[in-house]
């Protein structure tokens, strides 16, 4: 812009800054804002709101708060969108105290919260399982003269369902329909999940029929919820029929959906069916995760097919999916149960190779202790303790990777 002698204005800068923030290039966005100020152009409310939203969404609350204070010092009054951005970001991170503070500051500056602001705060309370406070915010919104949206109702319905207060969720569902608000797929899924987890599966079919009538087709989340309920209650024929229905409708199941089905089939002694589905996933090039392999290894060990399970461990590694402590626990327990201490020892040395060549440090302590256990014949005494340590280390590694 400068090269062509066209002087950029606040709108031009703000547009680029907003784009940089949405791409996660926050330092570049902040630098451009500084360049803008150095060039004699003052940022406006749009500029600051974009920056605050960007830093808040990345969890940099210190910078977001600094920008808010800078904005106020420059005589730019934050509007409802600016404050709602902060309330929503704080809530999504479970920082409800900071969200309340941002909400209070908003009121102090004479900005009236809108339905989006109230809904964001409601969602924050539900995320920390404080549904009673969420309902108070809902009531406060109504008292202020605002009409709750479908999203507002859906948030509270989901909150009630997650805390096993399904009857209250159903009452709220009826209320929203009486007010001519049409539930969306998220609303239905929350209610279906609540009904399934409370053991009221018989009510679910009516809701699914109602979904179709209202023009909201069940999605993969709907079917996954129902599939999980069928598997947990060992309604395996219904689970298989539902899986075929999903396939017939051309809906692509997620790996999470497949894991639920495979786990249900293995635990329900339908290993042959599970193996067919599993093999089909491999043939179609699915990138299976450690949970999928662990489910199948556990299923094979449960049926006494330990050699097949060990072979699957090799296949797993060839497919660049590395075992965790649960994988080894399952196999070692199965081998020891069959009195196969030598094979358990062999597996232990394979673990050692994994540590040396692939750097799986979480297996190091378990491997060393296991070697001592096998040497002294104290396998039974130390198994539980070692594997608890392994799991804790796996969890820590996953957190670091995240």
TrEMBL record:
InterPro entries registered for this protein in UniProt? PPR_rpt, TPR-like_helical_dom_sf
Write down the species: Senna tora
- Protein name as catalogued: Pentatricopeptide repeat-containing protein
Q: Which UniProt keywords apply?
A: Repeat
**Cross-referenced Pfam families:** PPR_1, PPR_2
Q: Member of which family? A: Belongs to the PPR family. P subfamily.
Annotated PPR repeat ranges: 9-43, 44-78, 79-113, 114-148, 149-183, 184-218, 219-253, 254-288, 289-323, 324-354
């Amino acid at each position: 812009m400068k090269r062509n002698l066209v002087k950029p204005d606040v709108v031009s800068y703000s547009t680029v800054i907003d784009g940089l923030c949405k791409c996660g290039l926050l330092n570049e966005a902040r630098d451009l804002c500084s360049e803008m100020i150095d060039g004699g152009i003052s940022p406006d409310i749009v500029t600051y709101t974009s920056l605050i939203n960007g830093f808040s969404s990345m969890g940099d609350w210190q910078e977001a708060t600094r920008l808010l204070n800078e904005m106020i010092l420059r005589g730019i009054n934050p509007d409802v969108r600016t404050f709602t951005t902060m309330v929503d970001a704080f809530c999504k991170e479970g920082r409800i105290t900071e969200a309340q503070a941002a909400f209070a500051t908003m009121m102090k500056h004479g900005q009236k919260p809108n339905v989006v602001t109230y809904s964001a705060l409601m969602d924050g309370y539900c995320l920390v399982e404080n549904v009673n406070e969420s309902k108070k915010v809902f009531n406060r919104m109504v008292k202020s003269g605002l009409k709750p949206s479908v999203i507002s109702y859906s948030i509270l319905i989901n909150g009630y369902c997650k805390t096993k207060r399904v009857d209250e969720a159903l009452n709220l569902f009826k209320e929203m329909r009486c007010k001519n608000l049409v539930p969306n797929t998220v609303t239905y899924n929350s209610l279906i999940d609540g009904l399934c987890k409370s053991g009221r599966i018989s009510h679910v079919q009516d809701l699914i029929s109602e979904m179709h009538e209202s023009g909201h087709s069940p999605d993969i989340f709907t079917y996954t919820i129902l599939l999980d309920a069928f598997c947990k209650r060992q309604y395996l024929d219904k689970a298989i029929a539902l899986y075929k229905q999903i396939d017939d409708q051309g809906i692509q199941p997620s790996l999470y959906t497949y894991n639920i089905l495979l786990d249900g089939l293995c635990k329900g002694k339908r290993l042959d069916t599970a193996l067919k589905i599993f093999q089909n996933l491999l043939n179609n090039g699915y990138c299976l995760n450690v949970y999928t392999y662990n489910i199948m290894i556990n299923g094979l060990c449960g049926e006494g097919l330990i050699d097949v399970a060990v072979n699957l461990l090799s296949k797993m590694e060839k497919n660049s999916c590395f075992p965790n402590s649960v994988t080894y626990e399952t196999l070692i327990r199965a081998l020891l149960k069959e009195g196969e201490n030598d094979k358990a020892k062999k597996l232990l040395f394979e673990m050692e190779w994994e540590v040396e060549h692939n750097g799986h440090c979480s297996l190091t302590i378990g491997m060393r202790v296991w070697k001592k256990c096998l040497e002294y014949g104290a396998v039974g005494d130390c198994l539980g303790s070692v594997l608890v340590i392994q799991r804790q280390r796996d969890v820590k590694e996953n957190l670091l990777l995240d």
